[in-house]
Amino acid sequence: MILIFCSDPMNKNAVDVDYEQEYSSAQSLGFMIKLICLEELLEGNLEKALSKISPNTENYVTALYRGWMIKPKYYEDLYNGLKKKNILLINDPEEYRNGHWLPNSYDKIKEFTPYSNWISIENLKNDWSQIYSNLSQFGNKSIIVKDYVKSRKHEWHESFYIPDASDRNHAAKVIKNFIDRQGDEINEGLVFREFVNLERISVHSKSQMPLSKEYRLFYFKNQFLYLFNYWEDSQYDEEIPDLEVFNRLAQTIGSSFFTMDIGKTFTGDWIVIEIGDGQVSGLPTDSNILEFYETIKERAD
């Protein structure tokens, strides 16, 4: 298996500084590692983006991309460019969307996750009637707003949390903040989700947003791979959730490498927060990254 990291924007021969720890861990285990230039990929210069990757002369070899989130259209370019070099990313473009966009996985997880609805970007012009229609399905419940991939949860009150979905004036203010601040980076559309209180463990040291008992589970070919504490700057107790139901659920996800973020509610239930593509899902810097890559190597061999 090949691992593909993004190069440093200022030095195409070095890994992006934010991935140095992962790069070093993987390198120490003997992984074959290649670098791509993310900036060239996003500019549409695929040949330059992949200039440091030579074609594989034998049969197709599987690769994992470990880098920054990219929109599906860029992932498809990356996938097709590598395929021409006889390198196949573990997730094809459809599998990437299945992990990356919440609406693509929602039907699989809806029994275990808060009620959600969404609006595609084509219907977001200047007509708020569709937004209000979606909000009406929540009554006066608390909700959160995000796009198909990302939220602005560190701007908790300004661009994320809506205490009462029936309060149109306040909801519109939060939603507009989110749209304006996401700008061109908005992913595909808006997603509204019922807010569920999770068991609190602390507050974020900078944004003061509440931090809850959450874990990130990695799955490799639909089998459990590894568990991380979700929050880096929080003290977790020794409780580890029973993963049986989540492992069964993982069998239904149309992706070969994905994450499942889970959390514990105030009532003691465990829920799915969201699914993510495993290639662009971050690792806590204070975790055992070497062990994570050892587990990948064992599974891939």
Draw up the topology in text:
Elements: E1 2-8, E2 11-15, H1 20-28, E3 32-36, H2 38-42, H3 46-49, E4 61-66, H4 72-83, E5 87-89, H5 93-100, H6 102-109, E6 116-120, H7 129-136, E7 143-147, H8 156-159, E8 161-162, H9 168-182, E9 189-194, E10 200-203, E11 210-212, E12 214-220, E13 223-229, H10 244-250, E14 257-264, E15 270-277, H11 289-300
Parallel strand pairs: 1-3, 1-4, 4-5
Antiparallel strand pairs: 1-2, 6-9, 7-8, 7-9, 10-11, 12-13, 12-14, 14-15
Helix pairs in contact: 1-11, 4-5, 5-6
How would you characterize the overall build of this protein?
This protein is of the alpha+beta class. The protein folds into three domains: 2-89, no CATH class; 99-103 and 198-284, D-amino Acid Aminotransferase, Chain A, domain 1 (2-Layer Sandwich); 115-194. Helices cover 31% and strands 27% of the residues. It contains eleven helices and 15 strands. The strands form four sheets. Strands 1, 2, 3, 4 and 5 form a five-stranded mixed sheet that branches. The radius of gyration is 20 Å and the shape is globular. The mean pLDDT is 93. Pfam families: R2K_3 (PF14243). Residues 141-285 form the ATP-grasp domain.
